[in-house]
Design goal:
Two copies of one chain form a homodimer. Chain A contains one helix and 15 strands. Chain A is globular.
Amino acid sequence: MKRNFYSSCEWPTEKKSLNRGLRNRLFKFKKEYRWTGIKIEKYKAEGDDFEGIIRQVLVGNRGENLHFHLRYFEISPGGYSSYEYHRHEHVVVCIRGRGRVKLGKRTIDMNFLDTLYIAPGTPHRLYNPYNEPFGFFCIVNAERDRPEKVKI
Amino acid sequence: MKRNFYSSCEWPTEKKSLNRGLRNRLFKFKKEYRWTGIKIEKYKAEGDDFEGIIRQVLVGNRGENLHFHLRYFEISPGGYSSYEYHRHEHVVVCIRGRGRVKLGKRTIDMNFLDTLYIAPGTPHRLYNPYNEPFGFFCIVNAERDRPEKVKI
């Protein structure tokens, strides 16, 4: 584990028998929807069915016992995520700007703190037809199936 | 399941074989940090070690396959949650006002979108010494142990 990547807001717990060395962590919110100690990543390693979208994984991939991952995605004006479906569910919470979601034959608008549950098997794409960034948390089970692309 | 409790923003998915009747759901954000179709609940069924705190469960307790629950808590000025610890972890995201967290011997401040990972076994209490409501998401594993009170 690379320690120098982390911010200084990290400290041990006091009930050591319970935590297997896990540490409390505070990820301070910064300008432009970044957080201390969190890096900006590609949306996906490869693919050509998305545009203008980045990812930050806040919690869930550092050896925690959590059964979920909290990720932040941001879509630039004109950008969009892959159009796909999978067995696992999404919980999406809009926290920056506004955007739209294509859910099969339906389209919904998302504004600040609107919260969307995407049921298993629903073809979905998030996109940003507006002039400001569209940012949202997406919470998922840690163990989940791989997405399948939807042919349009 | 009481159907009339829900908002109208609910519709079936299209890949029926995958979803066991689960439906997409949009919980629209409303004034005063409420969401369509979500009821305000007591913080806990009983107890006298907390004050001025309410709960809304957005996602996770309606038969979904999710391995987590997304809850929103709000603490009134002067209020506080129980001082407790447990094996399960918390992920806390401040979305309204600001507040403080006692984490064992430490105290941290939380402001908008600051994100806190509370490791297993950490005695913690969230409280609001300010004049505006302090609201935060708290995401937890669906399966989790019962908290133990900390004697002060």
